[in-house]
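cron nightly-structures :: item 1 of 1
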Amino acid sequence: MKVYRMPTFSRRDFLKLSALAPASAALFPWLSNLILPQKAGQETGPQNILIILFDAMTAKNLSLYGYPRDTTPNLNRFASRANVYHSHYSAGNFTIPGTTSLLTGLYPWTHRAINEGGVMAKELVDRNIFRSVGNRYNRLTFAQNIWANFILNQFGQDINIRLSPESFSAANGIVGSRFQNDPAGYHSFDDFLFKSSHTASLVFGTLQRLYVLRRVKQARETNSIQYPIGLPQTDNYPLLFSLEDVFNGLIDSVKKINIPTFAYFHLFPPHEPYRPTQDFSLLFKDKYQPLDKPTHPLSHDVSRTFLIKSRRGYDQYIANIDFQFGRLLDTLEQSGFLENSVVVVTSDHGESFERGEQGHETPMMYGPVLHIPLLISTPGQTTRNDIYQPTNSVDVLPTLVYLAGQPIPEWCEGELLPGLGGEYDPQRSTFSVEAKQNSAFAPIKMGTIAMRKGPYKLIHYIGYKDGFDDAYELYDLENDPEEMTDLYQSEQVIAAPLRDELLSKLNEANSHFQS
């Protein structure tokens, strides 16, 4: 029995929108190449590996992990045949470091993709998951998030087919995307001409913004019933899309996959702006009140009223995405794809609605921005396996490489996930790094480091003002999962060795750079 319920929405209205964008015929140039060729002499035995990443999806707001609102019935359905990781953390709290750590098995202080719009160290680009799984696989990628594409562009020589960010879009305002051979170049071209910053062209930037406003207005008028808040769109480039169209594109892509394929699908939702369809925008008109936490000095001091309103919109958007994921899951089940494939569902980072902070553009490293979902279904798996040991996004690469039958690279900083070849190590420490204000070419002297070891989480603030130049917080996550009671001063017997270990790791990472 299908869990989701929703009327079908026609694509006809969206096709009208495509006429607004120049050269719209080039929107899907990849279609003729999507059926991946079988390499001569290649065996058909290796399984497919499919990663589905939902941008900015925190585990804290998923009913899959005990959230009181029923946001994820279809993820729950997938979980019934998957390994479900309950204490999985991102190595970064925004797209660039989080995605790079997932795809490289390296911590941010190693790969150095730590700035907004930044890229990883050039000498390390061959240390990526696409090369590591072996050339037996056809390697396919699609990322709606432009920043994720900056990272994927660095791995271009190890990827067979890269679908552009505007694939499956209803409207596309990126002029340079017509030049498909140089994706990094065309986004630089658009930045120069159009982005609303001091480097953009005054004339072209104004014209482009007027053009986009016109398209947005027409899109909202056309879809005012289905999308009352407006069509979903990316926040960094003018790409507008419907959730139905995006998942239709993913479903078609999966149907055309030839064994063996390694596919990475990085979806922008539920990243802000949160724009559910009409049916889902009516959900969760309940009396749920999240725990009121004190405003943090490093937050943007957002009011609790706004946080509660934003949380509800986010929860509605997640439920909407979960509905669409249910359609994709139907395809995976009915086609037999799950019988010979590894399917991974995860995120690059989470989203905060507490302590005066909404979103993830923050130096704070609490659970909502770091605790992310991880579900991995192995070929033919029919039962659920719940795993509570702490894990990190750097563990995904070695685990998938291992499942692909390849040797785990010696440079990898992650470990095999428990339940998929790895063993629980109570003495293991994992790290999350936030250093967007720090130079990628210098030691980390401004940022936030979080270390998880056993039940404890230590947070270290470096280089901030107002008492956070060299500050620590310590939480016992087993007894205090909401991180309400800071134990750093009262439990120095526990805190001191954790602090020494964190500083030792940070100093080791910094030793590769001149002061």
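cron nightly-structures :: done
Residues 46 and 260 are 6 Å apart (CA to CA).
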